[in-house]
Amino acid sequence: MSAFVSLRDVSHAYAGAGSALAVDGLSIDVAEGEFAAVVGPSGCGKSTLMKLATGLQFPQGGTVTVAGERVTHPVKIAGMAFQAPTLLPWRTTLDNLLLPLEIVEPYRSEMRRRKREFAARAETLLGSVGLSGQGGRFPWELSGGMQQRASLCRALIHEPKLLMLDEPFGALDAFTREELWGVIRDLHASRKITVILVTHDLREAVFLADRVFVMSARPGRVLVERHIELPRPRDLEVTFTTQFQDIVHELRAHIVKARQ
Amino acid sequence: MTMTRAQSQLLIKASPWLFTIGLVVFWEAVVRVFKIPTFFLPPPSLIAQAFAEFAGPIARNSWITLETTLIGFGLAVGFGLLLGLVVGWSRAIYAGLYPLMIGFNAIPKVALVPILVLWFGIGFIPAVLTAFLISFFPIVVNVATGLATIEPELEDVLKALGASKLDIMRKVGIPRTLPYFFGSLKVAITLAFVGSVISESVASNYGIGNLMLQAQAQFQVPLIFAGLVALAVEGIVMYALMAMLEKRMTRWAQRSGFGQN
């Protein structure tokens, strides 16, 4: 198994050396097309992991490689979505989706020429997350769940190889959240994209991921790596089985230990 | 008896006029009933008379004050926008310039007029500069705030795509700053009037400020008040224009409740 995203013995602190480490001795390998979830107590450096893997920060120790290349600049093959949808209120939903294409090459220089084609692609993408025909509406005319769907589309519009999700459903109600689990599951299945999901929600991690990494309290490193052998495609019903509950309980015990 | 919806809407629309008329009537009545000497507080009727009598000088000087104010305000918009962009661009510049700007803003601008007179002589230029100096600060602060409060997650999304600082400013920073900028214009235009009138009444031979000073010297009290009314009218009209401009330019911000949470 050759790793698509690989963190080797990484240590990192914000605001230069000398201050408290956010992560220390962190090693994670994620294979191409794999769905990985990272869980852990708050402040365990999960967001640091996101920044390191996308090239927003560079580690003080250890190495980060993505798609076989040492990360020394922002990883343009990654898409990101966060807890806040962060859509631009002065742009329609469709124009929000086009924003990454206005930034990243080769689309950037082709924007003017291929605008119509890109808009069609955005419409299709919106359709695939259940937002057909909503492209002309402004983000603030959409519900929280719809905004989050649009935010996912924005993360995917430039067809990234890697999707980084930082607690993307944290602010949604339980039903909407489970609906969006289905959306992510289907996107992952149809696009064969590598996904790294950072979350507090163990059920979410177990339902979606092929592998779950449990991180320790600060400074963060991987305590446990758990394969989720539940067969795919997974239905929401699976979350009510004993097998599922057992895995959740097992992970929960690790987190409780990690907090101490 | 309760009002219908339409009636209460009408009342709210008419209310500002009713209160203004009420104030004028009350003023007139107080002056007449208590026999207040007109050199102390002239009644509105006398002020209206002064308006008619000195219509020429009032119009001429109002125009000069308006011109002075607008030139100073225009400079403030240009310079304030530029400085705001620079200050909001980097945290280091923000940290470095902020205390200086606070210090500068703390100086009462009337204290600068003698220096301006020393440099440029009495007249038009010190008035324009005072209007400019007093009104650029809120524009700078608002523009810088708009830039400095970009959501860090959104910045991450764009940076991870390889966006340059300039990209982020163009695509996010500047559009999201517009509501702050247009909001600050209302404050700035009002302050610009304060600046030009201060300077006119201290060191100029023109403008409403100067007209009021001369009227005071000749004890033409109704004319002083007529000057005040002229200033109030100009101020209200310019404020309304800025409010309209704000509404037109940033419709999305008002409908989305941007910046209110």
Describe this structure in words.
The complex is a heterodimer of chains A (260) and B (261). With 260 residues, chain A is an alpha/beta fold. Chain A has one domain: P-loop containing nucleotide triphosphate hydrolases (Rossmann fold, 3-Layer(aba) Sandwich), CATH 3.40.50.300. In chain A, 37% of the residues lie in helices and 22% in strands. Chain A has a six-stranded mixed beta sheet, sandwiched between helices. In chain A, helix 2 (93-103) runs antiparallel to helix 3 (107-128), helix 2 (93-103) packs parallel to helix 4 and helix 6 crosses helix 7 (242-259). The longest helix of chain A is centred in the middle third of the chain and has 22 residues, at 107-128. Chain A starts with a strand and ends with a helix. Chain B has 261 residues and is mainly α. Chain B has a single domain (58-250), classed as MetI-like (MetI-like fold, Orthogonal Bundle), CATH 1.10.3720.10. The longest helix of chain B has 39 residues, at 165-203. Chain A binds chain B through residues 51, 54-56, 73-76, 78, 80, 82, 84, 86, 88-90, 99-100, 102-105, 138-140, 154-155, 158, 164, 166, and chain B through 151, 153-154, 156-163, 167, 171-172, 175-176, 252-253, 255-258.
Number of strands of chain B: 0
H-E string of chain A: EEEHEEEHHHEHEHEEH
- CATH first level of chain B: Mainly Alpha
Ends of chain A: how far apart? 34 Å
CATH topology of chain A: Rossmann fold
Per CATH, the class of chain A reads Alpha Beta
Helix percent band of chain B:
over 70%
How many strands in all of chain A? Answer: 10
Measured as a percent range, the helix fraction of chain A is 25-40%
How far do the termini of chain B sit from each other? 39 Å
Largest sheet of chain B: none
Write the CATH architecture name of chain B.
Answer: Orthogonal Bundle
Rg estimate of chain B, integer Å: 23 Å
Tell me the number of helical segments of chain A per DSSP (H or I, 4 or more residues long). 7
CATH superfamily of chain A: P-loop containing nucleotide triphosphate hydrolases
* Major sheet details of chain A: 6 strands, mixed
- What percentage of the residues of chain B does DSSP assign to strands (E)? under 5%
What Rg of chain A is obtained from the alpha carbons, in whole angstroms? 18 Å
